[in-house]
Amino acid sequence: MKKLHPKSTLDELCYPYIYEESLLCDYEILTDDLTRMVGWAINDLQLLIKNYPDNKNLKNLELQLNWILPMCYHLNGSIRGNLAISNEDHLQLLNYYQQIKEITKDSINGFVLPGGISPVGILNKCSSMSKQAIRLMVLIHNKEQKEVAEILPKFANVLCNYFFTATILINQITGFKETPFVSKSYK
Fold it and tell me: Would 1 be classed as within a structural domain?
């Protein structure tokens, strides 16, 4: 059977690399989707801020997410194209994460079942997508032998943790109580 690659006009092609067999295309589609999800989270956060107009932590979260939004597109192109995530970017994200972690330090210890008012669900999805991006980076680098700069999975790991901790912050502000998860698999 011949490989699927229909002749297309520009109007019939959604992405130049869509017929590529490399996982790099999957990574780029995933990080594109991640960027779109962050945009959605910002929109829903703006709606939430209307209910808590004096909450500085929500306003800071909005500023941080607006910084993260283009960084997700930089993450997207940094394997096929030029590396667009710097050590300074990584440190900035780490700083944002540590700020939220400090604010929420008494709110959670251990695993919880996901829940809360929007944009919590969206941010949980962003956290999961960050993990998927890391896994694809591992496969692209180790199996497909395409160089992945070490700063990229480091940045994506912090991104994953940041998004999760942002959900805890929102739940803390809105009064949503997470349900602890007790694993039957791990003790």
Answer: no
Write out the residue range of the structural domain in which residue 69 sits: 20-106+118-175
pLDDT, tens digit, 9 for 90 and up, residues 93-140 = 999 999 999 999 998 778 889 999 999 999 999 999 999 999 999 999
Whole-structure pTM over 0.85, yes or no? yes
- In angstroms, the Cα distances linking 54 to 48, 58, 66, 103, 173 are 11, 9, 19, 17, 11
The number of folded domains in the chain is 1
CATH number of the CATH domain containing 57: 1.20.1200.10
Decide if 25 is inside a domain.
yes
Q: Tally Cβ neighbours within 10 Å of residue 95.
A: 11
Query: Which H or E run includes 180?
Result: strand 179-180
d(CA 48, CA 171): 11
Determine how β-strand 112-113 pairs with β-strand 179-180: antiparallel
E-state strands within the chain: 112-113, 179-180
